[in-house]
Design goal:
This protein is mainly α. It has helices spanning about 5-20, 25-45, 45-65, 75-100, 120-130, 135-145, 150-155, 160-180. Helix 2 packs across helix 4. The longest helix is centred in the middle third of the chain and has 30 residues, at about 75-100.
Amino acid sequence: MSDGIRQARDELLALRLRHGEPDAFPELVRLMERPLLYYLTQLAGTDAALDVLQEVWLVAFRAIRRLNDPRQLRPWLYRVARLRAIDRVRKDRSENRLRQAHAEDTATAQGDEPTFGPDDAAAVHRALDDLDVRHRDVLVLHFIEDLSVADIAGIVGCPEGTVKSRLHHAKRALREGLREG
């Protein structure tokens, strides 16, 4: 689907949501559930992604009518998802530190996530997992979700130049990770 058609469809859907059309929210979920789940899995991990996605849908349902610019529906959803994922990662890290403080001799090691595709897809996912979250974030938004540098900058809250720099470093790190893997 071309960017113009996708943008027009998203804008129309945002307007329908703003006006409270009953079928609009289920359509939004159908349209965005898979891409948001993939994005959240990359940011928060497989175990947390579904929980975070549920939080995203609650926020979206409550706040969608206040979206000022219907053209920003998709970037707005990704911004909400990103903030919720960051909160979840922070919460999980905090809980882990508490557990480790009370049980120093019991180290918990988590294994690699299972792979679901051919070997090449598994190697890409492993290489993505090894990336710093800031680099993985922009890489997924740019190449998987096909968002512009400007939209990504708005989602992650940094200048476009920083997004470009992170994309450059992320591509290089991913390339190196794939060579090693």
